[in-house]
Amino acid sequence: PQPAEAKPQPKQSPAKDTAKAKAKAKPAAVGENAPASKALAAKASAAKAPGMKAKGNAVEAAAAPAEEAAPTPKFEPPSRGTEVETPQEAEQDDGAEESAERPAALPDDTRPTINLVVVGHVDAGKSTLMGHLLCLVGTVSSKQLHKFEKESKQIGKASFAYAWVLDEGEDERQRGVTIDVCVKHFSTASKRFTILDAPGHRDFVPNMLQGAVQADVALLVADVSHFEAGFERGGQTKEHLQLVRSLGISELVVAVNKLDTCGWSQQTFEHIKAQLHSFIIGPECGYKEANVRYVPLSGFTGENMLERKEEALGWWEGPTLIEALDQLPTPARPPANGPLRLCVSDLYRSGASTCISGKMEGGAIATGQKVLVLPSGEQTTVKSLQMHGGASRSGHVGDYMDSVVLPLEPQFAAIGGVLCDPKSPVPVVDVLQVQILVFDLDVPMMRGQQLMCYLHTETLTATLTKLEQLIVKGRPQDRRPKCLQKGNTAVVQLRVSRKVCVEPKPQGKAPASSLSRLVLRDRGRTVAA
């Protein structure tokens, strides 16, 4: 069907301030698999974003109509380390309280940023490992740790003190499992890291996806004491590995954890490493051997995280955990001068403003910059920014923004939405043409099947409307398939339940952002990406 012009939404009356109540986050995530699942194009079915036109199956920017309001002055993306002059309108405050609490902007940090998702089976020790690491590098003070030790001991969970650094919710602490993605930051001499601690329980895979889709690299935590439970079918180790690879994450660090429980046995480490490695570099995962690093350690005792003791791991000649992370290459990014793209992963009201957080998928953002909020179509101006726990003048592609403050009612923004350049909006569509790789199935995938679709930070239902063609050894086949089975790579068409922000995968070897990757799940299992 021919796309129709999107009509501007009428202004709604502002909602009353509800005491800074944080909006309820919905789980989301996305994917595409590195060897497959490349979003080829997005076809507008009923509407399209302002300033877009359809050309065949592709969506491309169109010139703004002459009768529209005069365009805003061109925004030049700031370079790192340069001061950005804030327009007077951005300095106007909506309340004295907010103005008093706003910290002064810090100088831009030129070290590269790496967004690290921590994955693995439930109870593998992910939160304890990363909480202990944050304590060792000085992000968490001894006073804070003492508080966690005292509080966890009071409810009979003394061994959970490090995990409480990341598991901040009352439900998480009572149950002893991570439920929501927790974001923390730390730095080394050469890099800045954003930790996205993901839940390991199979019931919270959608939440895990929301963290993974914003990551550049993955840290898999494998528990030596319950390795088989996580690695067999029904465990989350294999599924998490497939998902992070499907989302384009090509660098992997494997932490073989709790080695203190088996007497620091080299034989146990080598046995688990061999089983993992055959799957990780095999056809179901597809990692390059040179991009996988293994580290034996104990997240509870801290052994081989920052330093190694000869009496425990005298046989290990490889890196510590912090060395393995610091050796990771700087991730490939889209061009720094590209259009702004920030996928919204969380938002909440703050006074008369809305605070948005999420990863910068493209371009740059700065205080005083005009932005377009999609899919609502609202334009507004950035009031202030925070990243890595402090105020900042600007953010760049690859950065995780802790807070982008907009003078906007929360009803005009949503998790799964995108902040973008008003002159270069992302397509907003409800029909997608995608290339997927099919995973393990109980029954074949058929036309008309209902699926859960995880597209960047958006979660919605999708209907498999067409099976267009199979791809065999990289070559499209002429005949349309009647169904899809495990291992098939195919081009399919999906109709999603509401309009979403997407972008076609870039041509050539340019890295694809989360806006062109998705994951499909059915009845609690990942079936394709």
UniProtKB/TrEMBL annotation:
Residues 1-109 are annotated as: Disordered. Keywords: Cytoplasm, GTP-binding, Hydrolase, Nucleotide-binding, Protein biosynthesis. One of its GO terms (molecular function) is GTP binding. It catalyses: GTP + H2O = GDP + phosphate + H(+). Residues 86-98 have a biased composition (Acidic residues). It is found in: Cytoplasm. Pfam families: GTP-eEF1A_C, GTP_EFTU. InterPro entries: GTP-eEF1A_C (IPR054696), P-loop_NTPase (IPR027417), T_Tr_GTP-bd_dom (IPR000795), TRAFAC_GTPase_members (IPR050100), Transl_B-barrel_sf (IPR009000), Transl_elong_EF1A/Init_IF2_C (IPR009001). One of its GO terms (biological process) is translation. It comes from the Eukaryota. PROSITE patterns: G_TR_2. Residues 111-335 form the Tr-type G domain. This is Tr-type G domain-containing protein. It comes from Pyrodinium bahamense.
